[in-house]
């Protein structure tokens, strides 16, 4: 019995050791697994026919406190409107600075119905100083086809203020642009069509061959059949299954919820105006040595006044002689080897240089020119 017990304990301990070894093996190899970025189809693509449309209109803002247009264009516009209402006035009967000509814009969302309300954006087109406290008169908003789809009217909110005196002025935000929340009433529905009844297309917001193929594979796996195919990097055509005939909304809802693996290109975005650098997760740097230094030139000017002595001859004048001092400082730099396969390694390698964002932009451009930067460099 004792021998059997010893053998059993050894087997049990060996089993535990095998399990622990397996766990350690999994833990050691876990960092080697690359995280896959998955997004909903709803967030990376849109269906054919589901799109926004722009609206625009010309309007008049009244009720301004002498901050409106100085010209006669706004006055003539209000006179034309009053004439259509049966009121006859001349340009001398109106105060020009109480009226402003404006452009009203908005975005008509997909499947908007009559009676729905939208926000109106108001922008002056004349020399009005401010539209604070003004009211927009009834303004028709037209689409690209010239048809009226909405009517805008109401008091304007500029989200700030402007005040001016004889010797000083103050301003917050832009007093010549404002907004009317829910100031547009939709009057006409824009016709939309979701496919042709047999199939429907899906458009990627950022075209990519791999992502389009992943979407078609994911849809075919979910529907257990060949229903989707990638036509090009920006579109996927889907056949509507029989069970969704007459209920395309449910079919679209099911497709939108699917998570798809996205393939991101290696890209570095540089904004030279602000010194901002954005590095994508796929960026790699081949082993390369960098030496980066800076040159600083400082110029100091100090004026020295030469004053004539007492009882100097007549005609002596005080003169100012500039004294200029120039100093040059050049920072010493040594070669630093950098490389990186993952984003963390790239960031760590670039941080070892200890440079400013402005210098980092120059280094990245040089790395791209040398071929060491394995990424697309985009300057905005």
Write a short abstract of this structure.
The protein is of the alpha+beta class and 380 residues long. The protein folds into three domains: 53-186, no CATH class; 199-261; 268-304 and 321-379, no CATH class.
What class, by secondary structure content?
A: alpha+beta
* Model regions low in confidence, pLDDT < 50 over at least 5 residues: 1-35
Quaternary arrangement of the chains shown? single chain
Relative strand content: 35-45%
Number of domains: 3
**How would you state the average pLDDT, rounded?**
79
Report the end-to-end length measured between terminal Cα atoms. Answer: 81 Å
Strand line-up across the major sheet: 3-4-5-10-7-6
What does this structure look like?
The protein has 380 residues and is α+β, with helices and mostly antiparallel strands. It has 3 domains: 53-186, no CATH class; 199-261; 268-304 and 321-379, no CATH class. It contains 7 helices and 22 strands. The chain has a 6-stranded antiparallel beta barrel. It has a 4-stranded antiparallel sheet with strand order 2-11-13-12. Strands 16-15-22 form a 3-stranded mixed sheet, covered by helices on one side. Strand 4 and strand 5 (117-124) form a beta hairpin. It starts with a helix and ends with a strand. Residues 1-35 have low confidence and may be disordered.
């Amino acid at each position: 019995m004792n021998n059997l017990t010893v053998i059993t304990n050894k087997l049990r301990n060996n089993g535990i050791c095998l399990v622990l070894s397996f766990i350690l093996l999994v833990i050691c190899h876990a960092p080697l697994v690359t995280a896959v970025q998955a997004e909903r189809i709803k967030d990376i693509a849109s269906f054919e026919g589901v799109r926004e449309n722009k609206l625009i209109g010309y309007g008049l803002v009244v009720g301004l406190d002498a901050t409106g247009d100085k010209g006669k264009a706004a006055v003539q516009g209000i006179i034309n409107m009053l004439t259509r209402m049966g009121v006859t006035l001349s340009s001398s009967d109106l105060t020009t600075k109480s009226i402003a000509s404006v452009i009203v814009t908005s975005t008509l969302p997909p499947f908007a119905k009559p009676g729905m309300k939208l926000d109106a954006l108001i922008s002056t087109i004349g020399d009005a100083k401010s539209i604070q406290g003004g009211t927009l008169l009834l303004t028709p908003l037209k689409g690209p086809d010239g048809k009226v789809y909405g009517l805008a009217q109401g008091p304007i909110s500029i989200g700030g203020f402007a005040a001016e005196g004889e010797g000083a002025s103050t301003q917050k935000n832009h007093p010549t642009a404002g907004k009317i929340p829910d100031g547009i009433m939709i009057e006409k529905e824009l016709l939309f069509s979701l496919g042709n009844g047999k199939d429907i297309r899906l458009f990627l917001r950022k075209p990519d061959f791999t992502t389009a193929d992943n979407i078609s594979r994911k849809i075919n796996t979910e529907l257990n059949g060949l229903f989707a195919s990638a036509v090009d990097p920006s579109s996927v055509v889907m056949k509507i299954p029989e069970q969704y005939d007459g209920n395309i909304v449910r079919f679209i809802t099911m497709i939108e919820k699917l998570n798809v693996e996205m393939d991101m290109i290696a890209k570095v975005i540089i904004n030279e105006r602000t010194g901002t650098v954005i590095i994508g997760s796929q960026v790699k740097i081949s082993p390369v040595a960098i030496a980066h230094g800076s040159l600083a030139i400082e110029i100091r000017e100090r004026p020295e006044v030469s004053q004539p002595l007492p009882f100097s001859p007549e005609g002596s004048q005080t003169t100012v002689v500039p004294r200029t001092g120039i100093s040059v400082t050049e920072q010493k730099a040594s070669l630093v080897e950098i490389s990186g396969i993952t984003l963390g390694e790239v960031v760590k390698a670039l941080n070892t240089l200890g440079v400013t964002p402005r210098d980092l932009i120059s280094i990245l451009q040089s790395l791209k020119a040398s071929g060491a930067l394995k990424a697309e460099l985009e300057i905005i």
